[in-house]
Automatic annotation (TrEMBL):
Signal peptide: none annotated. The gene is bloc1s5. The lineage of its organism: Eukaryota, Metazoa, Chordata, Craniata, Vertebrata. This is Biogenesis of lysosome-related organelles complex 1 subunit 5. GO terms for cellular component: BLOC-1 complex; transport vesicle. It holds the Pfam family Muted. Residues 175-187 have a biased composition (Basic and acidic residues). Belongs to the BLOC1S5 family.
Amino acid sequence: MAGDVTRHSRIGLQVDPAGHARSPRSRKADAGMASNIPSHSAGNFSRRIGVTSVVPRDREPEAVQWRCEREKRGHRESRLLENLNKIVTETNEQMLPTDLEGMLSNVFTRLDAANHMAERVQQRELEAQQSTQLQGSMERLKEEWAEFLKEQQRLKEEVDEEHAKAVGQLSTTYNEKKKDLTKFSPL
């Protein structure tokens, strides 16, 4: 171990006992190789590079090259994930607005305005209907008034006739009484 160099890695790789770096995805494939590994080096097989790993000096350039390729791939994957996250965020903003309360208040404002307009339309229709009914009522009242005036005229004529008869009878009776009085008076 004195000739070995200790390396730290920022990506989650595993190192087998021979110093070859492996991705965590190949654990199942490496499980079959674990039986060929001596028991004293089995602990190194499952250790992640993120902690500490030992790479022999003769394998160092290959491990560095492989690590660089892996880091490039990791950067590509992280950029892809960032782009995907950005697309998802933009889609969510377009599809599901974050300011739901603001939108709800806007919807309620529009709903109130629509209700107010509907009430005004109903009021106008009611006024028009009442106006039509009022005109009909006015016509009916005019007809009733004309009939009332005709009836009053007829009643007036009857009363005038009765009055004339009564005046005639009274004057006749008065004249008779006057004659009777003149007969009985001594003058």
